[in-house]
Specification:
Length: 477
């Protein structure tokens, strides 16, 4: 295999460089695949043809974005896609071309695009009542909160609705501080928890942190089995957490927040034994254990919640993304005792628990159960992970395959021994795969990890096609 080279700095990566990496606009981006039409003919059959698109072109939309939207917004791919239609695990561009969606709107569309059992109740709710405000009674928010609480263990049964994961995590951090009377929060390096004041402090990647005051947050060493300083030794990482609390705080903390699998950070699983040991350490320090399930929740990992694989019961669980299958919805679930801290003042969220979003959320829970999407995520995810590991044996550029269920990561390196991030190569292969009709995400601090988080209706045939496209794209480098 010819090596695709580019100069890079492994030590640091600026926000502007990272944005260029993710938008795939560099001169080294892939050219169109010559035999893509022949390859696309092998896409698994799918009985849906979108109606003709009559809207503005991709170029016209891009020009409007440049003129009227924030310059911080970026697009994936050398030639941005104009996605106009979606059905289950497939997306369609303005020409009607079909793409296998292995990103699901950043781990959002768990039930599949435009699932009829989500769309229909939402339409019916919109026709009857859109936004009554939670100051009035309405069954939608009550029914959804009851169903959601039933999915959580122990005394986790009080729900606060928000509009996003950032809002949910902000609320959780505030509640932890109020309940404990402490101000120190501990999170893990490489984690991502949002982009508001408190959550930006808890986030531990420089490209997501603006130069504003961020105080009271301490970042423990990341228990990363692939790149971490202690490898897969969860106990050693836990000792670092213990020492961080002993030497960096008063010895008492408000809370500890972490993802069971780091999403933005590159689908990083935590070292075995770490989370259960961390739980004990945090509780002894008087802190609350906050599980950030924004990306790993709602059956994506093969468990309903990511934390379930670690045998811990959090004090607070935050969620968003997959909760609404694309509707703006987030939530914080905690115990009645902890929830009581918000009665000390007035807490209110205008759109949290909106009737339409609540209807969508309840529909999502029903679809996951009815169609056994948790079981499918486990089965197809294990199958796909096995196929990706086989691909790793064939291609030296694959340094690591990791994740659980349908939350998988493939890290690319130009040198397996040194684990040199293959950032430019990742862009090249990603563009090639797009030409072959497969859409994947990308993450990790160096932008060299494929994030594979498809809708949970993904099939083994879909998995086979994804692996074929990745294999072909790597072989042509």
């Amino acid at each position: 295999m010819q090596r695709f080279t580019a100069k890079r700095s492994v030590q640091n990566i600026s926000a502007s460089l990272w944005r260029r990496c993710i938008s795939s606009t560099s001169q080294t981006a892939a050219a169109p695949v010559k035999d893509s039409d022949e390859f696309l003919a092998r896409l698994p059959p799918f009985d849906y043809t979108p109606p003709p698109y009559t809207g503005p072109s991709a170029d016209a939309i891009l020009n409007k974005r440049k003129e009227f939207l924030s310059p911080s917004m970026f697009c994936l791919y050398r030639k941005p896609l104009n996605i106009v239609d979606g059905k289950m695990q497939y997306l369609f561009d303005e020409s009607g071309r079909r793409y296998l969606d292995a990103f699901a709107g950043i781990a959002v569309v768990n039930c599949g695009h435009c699932h009829p059992d989500v769309v229909e109740p939402v339409i019916n709710q919109i026709k009857r009542l859109q936004h009554p405000t939670v100051l009035y009674l309405n069954h939608a928010i009550a029914d959804f909160s009851e169903a959601l609480a039933s999915k959580l263990p122990g005394d986790l049964k009080v729900v606060f609705f928000t509009n996003s994961g950032t809002e949910a995590n902000e609320l959780a951090l505030m509640m932890a501080k109020l309940y404990t009377g402490c101000q120190d929060i501990v999170s893990i390096r490489n984690g991502y928890h949002g982009n508001a004041a408190g959550t930006m402090g808890a986030t531990a990647q420089s490209m997501w942190k603006f130069n504003v005051v961020q105080t009271g947050t301490h970042h423990a060493v990341n228990p990363d089995p692939y790149r971490g300083v202690f490898g897969s030794d969860g106990e050693k990482y836990a000792r670092d957490l213990q020492e961080l609390i002993q030497y960096g705080t008063t010895g008492h903390i408000a809370g500890f927040i972490c993802e069971a699998i780091q999403g933005v950070g590159g689908i990083v699983e935590l070292a075995p034994g770490y989370l259960s040991a961390a739980y004990d350490i945090v509780k002894k320090a008087g802190g609350l254990f906050i599980a950030d399930e924004v990306q790993s929740g709602f059956a994506r990992t093969g468990n309903f919640w990511g934390f379930e694989a670690h045998n811990v019961v959090p004090d607070i669980v935050t969620m968003a993304k997959g909760i609404g299958n694309g509707f703006p919805l987030g939530a914080v679930v905690t115990t009645p005792e902890i929830a009581g801290v918000l009665t000390r003042r007035c807490y209110f969220n205008t759109f949290g628990g909106n009737a339409v979003s609540s209807t969508a959320g309840l529909a999502v829970l029903n679809v996951i159960e009815k169609e056994k999407l948790q079981e499918n995520a486990s089965m197809v995810g294990s199958y796909l992970k096995g196929k990706l590991n086989q691909l790793k044996e064939k291609h030296e550029i694959i340094g690591d395959v990791r994740g659980r269920g349908l939350m998988l990561g493939v890290e690319l390196v130009s040198d397996r021994k040194l684990k040199t991030p293959a950032t430019a190569e990742t862009l090249h292969i990603m563009d090639q795969m797009k030409e072959l009709g497969v859409l994947v995400g990308k993450g990790g601090y160096f932008g060299n990890v494929f994030r594979i988080t498809p809708p949970l209706c993904f099939t083994k045939d879909d998995a086979d096609y994804l692996v074929e496209a990745m294999d072909y794209s790597m072989s042509k480098m």
